[in-house]
Specification:
Structural class of chain B: mainly alpha
CATH topology of the largest domain in chain B: Helicase, Ruva Protein, domain 3
Largest interface: A-B, 18 and 15 residues
CATH class of the largest domain in chain B: Mainly Alpha
Order of helices and strands of chain B: HHHHH
Number of domains of chain A: 1
Number of helices of chain B: 5
CATH architecture of the largest domain in chain B: Orthogonal Bundle
Number of strands of chain B: 0
Shape of chain A: elongated
Number of domains of chain B: 2
Distance between the termini of chain B: 119 Å
Largest sheet of chain B: none
Strand content of chain A: 15-25%
Oligomer: heterodimer
Shape of chain B: elongated
CATH architecture of chain A: 3-Layer(aba) Sandwich
Number of strands of chain A: 7
Order of helices and strands of chain A: HEEEHEHEHEEH
Largest sheet of chain A: 5 strands, mixed
Number of helices of chain A: 5
Strand order of the largest sheet of chain A: 5-4-3-6-7
Structural class of chain A: alpha/beta
Radius of gyration of chain B: 31 Å
Chain lengths: 176, 137
Amino acid sequence: MKTQLKYLIPFVIFLMLIGFFLKGLNLDPREVPSPLINKPAPMFEQPLLNDTSKTFSSNSMLGQVWLLNVWASWCTACRDEHPLLMAMSQQIDVPIVGIDYKDTNPEALDVLSKLGNPYSAVATDVEGRVGIDYGVYGVPETYLIDKEGVIRYKQIGPITVAALQEKIIPMIKGLK
Amino acid sequence: MKRLLALFLLLLSLALNAESIASDPLVEARLKSLSQELRCLVCQNQTLADSTAPLAEDLRREIRELIAKGMTDEEITNYLVARYGDFVRYRPPFKSQTALLWLGPTVMLIIGFVVLWVTLRRRNKTLPNDYEVADEI
């Protein structure tokens, strides 16, 4: 009996390896957890997309829960996300602020006029400096920021319906 | 004489211009050594030094500016880690989360030696008896 069990050891180790590999297959290496969760959102003041003579300051959002969506007209995943943002702007009672990341203003305005504008304000970040402060490494990315200006959640890549229903909406309700 | 002076000024302005375009070799050397230790988050298996992704270019520009501000290499690394997390470093730091990563291979090696030692000892105990039996026959 004892020797029989001994021969099972390699098999058990093999099964454990399979388990690790299966888990690894289902992880997305592109999703790098942000160190900014539960840290104050970096302050920025950038020109507005529709009127570059005026600026948008992230400080003006203090006291309310809001979403910061980093997007660009050149980003195809942002196009996929756009209909969901449109629906969110009508159904979720929090402002969505856009950051037009490394883009040209005419092209961005063109996209918004053709597909609709889900944003309460769009700030431009032509040089990508705000993006660096927020640890953006691929657009779209979305941050949920609370009343004290603390980042509570980061969505890497397009917002999915599942992420919206299971994480973002419950978190917004909790923060309000 | 005036012409000569104009020519001289022209040459001088060209020289000054060239100097401002060619950046400080010391800064470039530090940028190179730093960016070889940092990961490009767009193409994750490349260093910031190797990558031509737009984000890598932006980050190199950022590092150049931080060097110009007089920050140390460690401060610059911390600046990037605060934004992108430990993943931005090519060498993960040693902490509780990464202990298994760093110690795992050594632990496995020790386990291997223990198994080897136990097996050899057991064999030493059993083998002589077998031979004695064989000798008697």
